[in-house]
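ok trying this again, last paste got cut off
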Amino acid sequence: MRFRGRAKTGPPPGDSMPRPAEPEGPPPVLVIDALGRKCPIPIIMLAERIREIPVGQVVAVLADDAAARTDVPAWCRMKSQDFVREETLGQGGWGFHIRRTY
């Protein structure tokens, strides 16, 4: 049996305009610039400075050492902090967003 209902309306597949990216989560209240620093310096900088922000707020760590892509989430798991997201920076490297939990 064929369905003879109304055809779907809207743009055809592939013709839709791309939507701008929506920010994920709150903006960081502290940005730690570890660009140009090698492992383990970005983690050391994060560990030293995360206490500067209130619990529940977000800190961003900027790093261009590829090891930070595994080190930052691993540090968050070990220290029971919330790893919010990773974003690619336009100038190279990544921004890692971490929410302080305690």
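PB: full thing came through this time. The longest strand covers residues 82-88.
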